[in-house]
TrEMBL record:
Transmembrane segments: none annotated. PANTHER family: PHENYLALANINE--TRNA LIGASE BETA SUBUNIT, PHENYLALANYL-TRNA SYNTHETASE BETA CHAIN AND LEUCINE-RICH REPEAT-CONTAINING PROTEIN 47. This is Phenylalanyl tRNA synthetase beta chain core domain-containing protein. GO terms for cellular component: phenylalanine-tRNA ligase complex. InterPro entries: aa-tRNA-synth_II/BPL/LPL (IPR045864), Phe-tRNA-ligase_IIc_bsu (IPR045060), PheRS_beta_core (IPR041616). Gene3D superfamilies: Bira Bifunctional Protein, Domain 2. Residues 1-107 form the Phenylalanyl tRNA synthetase beta chain core domain. GO terms for biological process: phenylalanyl-tRNA aminoacylation. One of its GO terms (molecular function) is phenylalanine-tRNA ligase activity.
Length: 163
């Protein structure tokens, strides 16, 4: 967001992508911290661009060999609420395996369904799933905190699962 703020006078749209190690406090670690490799993308323009970031997610997941959901396998997105994002303009990412995904410095854990074993039982296990990993249009308070005036859509994802 600082980079977007520093470059807000550049021609629109601004599209940023970053792949970086992030250091997180971890009392369980010997050194009190751990590294995670994360991918982040931000789209800043006169329109929010949720579909642009969603398309980016689709492309990344395709490159990681995670296909869109079909009959309980693959990944999908679902509407959710997250105070970082504008109400009604946020979605959770749900997919196969166990992986962690984050949003702008927050770490969220999702449990994903096993394609063959769980697809028939998804409804009965749905309460144990955490659908709080999100992508979406940033809340106006977040945008103005960085001195920005236009809508901004973002996603941040821990990619350790795929390495």
């Amino acid at each position: 967001m600082k980079t977007i703020s520093s470059n807000r006078d550049m021609p629109l749209p601004l599209k940023l992508f970053e792949l970086q190690d992030v250091i997180l406090k971890d009392p369980a670690s010997d050194v009190g911290a751990r590294n995670e490799r994360r991918l982040a993308a931000v789209y800043y323009n006169k329109t929010a661009g949720f579909e642009i970031v969603h398309g980016f997610l689709d492309r990344v997941m395709r490159l990681l060999d995670v296909d869109p959901a079909k009959d309980g396998s693959g990944y999908f997105i679902r509407a959710c609420d997250n105070p970082t994002f504008f109400p009604g303009r946020c979605a959770s990412i749900i997919g196969p395996g166990n992986m962690t995904l984050g949003v702008l410095g927050r770490l969220f854990l999702i449990y994903f369904s096993l394609p063959d074993l769980l697809c028939d039982f998804r409804k009965s296990f749905q309460d144990s799933f955490h659908f709080c990993t999100s992508l979406g249009v940033l809340h106006p308070e977040v945008i103005t905190a960085f001195g920005l005036t236009l809508p901004c859509c973002a996603i941040e994802m821990n990619i350790e699962y795929f390495l």
